[in-house]
């Protein structure tokens, strides 16, 4: 009887024990996070689910919205307080009893002006807890507070104030990242590749900040979803447009004006954004060229952004966006009948479809057209020449986002691009005679890739991101240069395969959480680059060209290692980080030392090939909140190149090798009406090559140059300040006045070095002295910005 009772007790207890060992059921919470005032989806918003029975937990479940504002997390059944937050926003808080898979769309109010300026869109400890290395997110509102040249706010120039990112020169919007060349930066505008990001010969970028929603730069640990470049990814998203009501924004500056309009086509379902900008330098210069014999000369640029979207349901939405911009420089001489015309610019179109298969599977599919052209035409009525180069792409791709569990994100996809290159077509017309390369000038290529990447937490302290990318490139006919003993070149029919290349690109990054305030991060990335921008630094013509890999031109290959320590101080009020990196580069390309443009399609014969390396240390300190905020960034780095056919095969510093690079940014909110800011930059002088001696051949002066880049320009440094007077708040209209001074203490920074001769060259008693030309002195500016 005793054992029977015990057996009966155990039989009743076992189901209870089994049930108690089972895990609490889990369900998926997903949805979109939007701006409450405009209905626009928010990138990088945080959604936190705090358990009702433990609201003070140090590590509640959370998710971050993707590029289209979608989030997903799988968490245990229960009661939660769900909080959505975003930069300079009022968080939305909702109570939720999670008992099944739930779709919860959230809205946050971002239009409210906060008393304290916040200069980050991450959660307070996002820089410590995330696995990303060398990633910066930038909002247009941050750009507006930075002093700029001629009052023209510029995203790319703001990025140059961050460690590891160097300016391409005085006033230039181009940039170098960790010792990589300008072509090694993948620049995307709504997924479309941008091949030239500069206006006014690079002094301004093509990106109108009023049309931009978000900017992300990745300079280390590049995820597997991105490829085709060695150094960095600059991913820029245009505004979707306001779904609720029509609004406008614009500005009038010293050299350009701009206007942006956005509003609903169908309220709460579709939106439209239109943004245009044009400079009026040509109009301002007319009084100065009048009577000089150069009437009709001038320069101007313009650009236009447009984007439309339509939401069929929470599961389907389509976007159509585009960009078109042109620079036009003209010179006309009435005296000599000489004229010069230089137009160039980009055009892109992106069609996207977002589809939600389930609460855990999200898809983005897109088709893209983009075109870049650069042309120089010059001469007189009876003798003219023109130089044309360009690249045109047709691209299709799809990306899948899968969320298998909380803090576990899987992304995979594929893409294909058809390239058409015109790597430099030079033609000449004399009277009725036309000298023009034939159709062999164009080159064609197919580029494709597949990838997968998995980001997940392991235990409490580790977070990993592993990825693998497989890439393929095929150069097609009609032509490729093939140097050999028996033939100088070989021709192919259009469409015939010329050369195939394959590449495997593993990527990995990790984060170890030391404590709540600090973490260690490491990354390694292998990359391949199949198209190349070849620069002839010795030419005064705009002859930089894009060329594909071929039998002669092998793909560039790179591998980058990075290690970083990240720590927040004073309850996340300050961010600090130290990163070290090493980058090994192979198959780097340059023109040979004696290249000049010629009437030939065999451009590969003028290339030389070599390797490179770069390494450095980056220090960063940022004050995130308060009336006074900003950052200090410092980089110590070295960048070298080794070419068998250059510099007698000896190693030489790259032109953008810069030992020291320092940036200081400070923004101070005096009160609700006035905000003042200032920047200071310092950089070691860039490397260049000086002639060591000169001599005459048949009465022609010849220069004997020393080792490549063995000389240095003077160090570059400059301070800028600005003050913004904010207009009084009004429900319908608000305007700001921005006063700025560029180069406050009038530093004469070197821009061009030339040789000055004092004496008689033929007698040999001349003294040759290198002298510099400086570009921008102290420049005050004023601009008026408005919203309605």
Coarse structural class: mainly beta
* Count of β-strands: 51
Radius of gyration: 29 Å
Strand content: over 45%
pLDDT averaged residue by residue: 82
CA-CA gap between termini: 88 Å
The biggest sheet, with number of strands, parallel, antiparallel or mixed sense and barrel status, is: 22 strands, antiparallel, barrel
Which residues form runs of ≥5 with pLDDT under 50? 1-21, 112-122, 485-492, 538-542
Q: What portion of residues is helical? A: under 10%
Q: What coarse outline follows from CA principal-axis ratios?
A: globular
Count the helices. How many? 5
How would you describe what is shown here?
The chain is mostly beta strands. The strands form eleven sheets. The chain has a 22-stranded antiparallel barrel. The radius of gyration is 29 Å and the shape is globular. The termini are far apart. Mean pLDDT is 82; it is low at 1-21, 112-122, 485-492 and 538-542.
Task: Give the key terms.
single chain, 788 residues, mainly beta, 22-stranded antiparallel barrel, 5 helices, 57% strand, disordered N terminus
Question: Any chance you could write out the topology, listing elements then pairs?
Answer:
Layout: H1 2-21, E1 26-35, E2 46-51, E3 62-64, E4 70-76, E5 78-85, E6 92-98, E7 102-103, E8 106-108, H2 126-129, E9 135-138, H3 140-143, H4 155-159, E10 165-167, E11 175-177, E12 185-189, E13 192-193, E14 198-199, E15 204-205, E16 212-218, E17 232-238, E18 247-252, E19 256-264, E20 270-279, H5 281-289, E21 298-311, E22 316-332, E23 339-356, E24 361-380, E25 383-405, E26 408-430, E27 433-435, E28 443-458, E29 462-476, E30 479-480, E31 490-491, E32 497-513, E33 518-529, E34 531-534, E35 545-548, E36 556-569, E37 574-591, E38 607-623, E39 628-643, E40 652-653, E41 660-669, E42 674-683, E43 687-688, E44 691-697, E45 700-705, E46 711-712, E47 716-726, E48 734-742, E49 750-758, E50 767-774, E51 779-787
């Amino acid at each position: 009887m005793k054992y029977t009772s015990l057996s009966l007790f155990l039989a009743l207890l076992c189901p209870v024990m089994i049930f108690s060992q089972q895990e609490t059921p889990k369900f998926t919470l997903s949805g979109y996070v939007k701006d409450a005032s405009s209905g626009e989806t928010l990138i990088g918003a945080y959604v936190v689910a705090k358990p009702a029975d433990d609201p003070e937990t140090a590590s509640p479940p959370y998710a971050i919205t993707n590029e289209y504002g979608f989030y997903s997390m799988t968490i245990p059944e229960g009661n939660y307080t769900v909080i959505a937050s975003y930069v300079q926003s009022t968080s939305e808080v909702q109570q939720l009893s999670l008992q099944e898979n739930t779709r919860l769309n959230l809205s946050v109010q971002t239009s409210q002006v906060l008393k304290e300026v916040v200069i980050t869109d991450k959660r307070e400890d996002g820089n410590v807890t995330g696995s990303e290395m060398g990633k910066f997110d930038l909002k247009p509102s941050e750009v507006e507070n930075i002093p700029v040249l001629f009052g023209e706010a510029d995203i790319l120039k703001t990025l140059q104030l961050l460690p590891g990112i160097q300016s391409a020169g005085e006033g230039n919007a181009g940039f170098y990242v960790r010792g990589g060349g300008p072509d090694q930066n993948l620049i995307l505008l709504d997924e479309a590749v941008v091949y030239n990001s500069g206006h006014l010969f690079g002094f301004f970028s093509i990106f109108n900040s009023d049309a931009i929603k978000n900017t992300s730069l990745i300079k280390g640990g590049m995820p597997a979803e991105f490829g085709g470049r060695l150094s960095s990814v600059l991913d820029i998203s245009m505004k979707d447009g306001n779904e609720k009501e029509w609004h406008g924004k614009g500005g009038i500056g010293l050299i350009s004006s701009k206007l942006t309009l956005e509003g609903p086509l169908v309220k709460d379902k579709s939106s439209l954004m239109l943004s245009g900008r044009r400079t009026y330098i040509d109009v301002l210069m007319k009084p100065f060229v009048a009577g000089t014999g150069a009437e009709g000369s001038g320069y101007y640029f313009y650009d236009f952004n447009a984007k439309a979207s339509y939401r069929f349901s929470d599961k389907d939405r389509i976007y159509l966006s585009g960009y078109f911009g042109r620079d036009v420089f003209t010179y006309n001489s009435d005296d000599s009948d000489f004229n010069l015309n230089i137009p160039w610019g980009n055009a892109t179109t992106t069609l996207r479809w977002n589809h939600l298969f389930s609460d855990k599977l999200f898809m983005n599919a897109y088709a893209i057209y983009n075109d870049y052209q650069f042309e120089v035409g010059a001469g007189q009525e009876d003798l003219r020449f023109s130089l044309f180069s360009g690249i045109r792409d047709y691209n299709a791709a799809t990306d899948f986002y899968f969320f298998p569990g909380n803090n576990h994100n899987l992304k995979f996809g594929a893409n294909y691009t058809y390239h058409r290159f015109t790597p430099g077509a030079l033609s000449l017309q004399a009277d009725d005679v036309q000298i023009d390369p034939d159709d062999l000038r164009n080159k064609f290529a197919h580029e494709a890739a597949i990838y997968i990447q998995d980001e997940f937490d392991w235990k409490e302290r580790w977070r990993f991101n592993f990825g693998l990318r497989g890439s393929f490139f095929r150069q097609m006919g009609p032509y490729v240069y093939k140097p050999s003993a028996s033939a100088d070149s070989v021709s192919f029919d259009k469409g015939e395969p010329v050369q195939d290349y394959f590449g495997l690109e593993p990527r990995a990054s990790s984060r170890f959480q030391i404590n709540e305030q600090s973490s260690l991060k490491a990354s390694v990335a292998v990359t391949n680059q199949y198209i190349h921008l070849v620069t002839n630094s010795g030419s005064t013509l705009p002859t930089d060209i894009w060329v594909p890999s071929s039998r002669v031109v092998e793909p560039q290959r790179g591998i980058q290692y990075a290690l970083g320590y990240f720590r927040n101080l004073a309850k996340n009020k300050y961010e600090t980080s130290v990163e070290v990196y090493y980058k090994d580069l192979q198959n780097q390309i340059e023109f040979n030392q004696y290249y000049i443009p010629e009437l030939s399609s065999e451009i590969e014969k003028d290339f030389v090939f070599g390797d490179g390396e770069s390494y450095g240390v980056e220090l960063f300190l940022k004050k995130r909140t308060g009336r006074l905020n900003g950052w200090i960034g410092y980089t110590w780095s070295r960048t070298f190149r080794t070419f068998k056919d250059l510099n007698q095969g000896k190693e030489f510093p790259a032109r953008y090798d810069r030992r020291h690079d320092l940036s200081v940014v400070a923004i101070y909110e005096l009160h609700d009406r006035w905000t003042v800011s200032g920047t200071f930059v310092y950089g070691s002088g860039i490397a260049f090559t000086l002639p060591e001696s000169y001599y005459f051949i048949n009465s022609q002066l010849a220069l004997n140059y020393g080792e490549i880049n063995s000389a240095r320009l003077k160090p570059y440094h400059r301070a800028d300040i600005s003050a913004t007077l904010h207009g009084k708040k009004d429900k319908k209209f608000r305007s700001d006045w921005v006063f700025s001074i560029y180069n406050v203490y009038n530093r004469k920074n070197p821009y061009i070095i030339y040789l000055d001769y004092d004496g008689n060259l033929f007698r040999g008693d001349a003294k040759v002295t290198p002298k510099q030309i400086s570009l921008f002195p102290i420049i005050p500016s004023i601009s008026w910005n408005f919203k309605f």
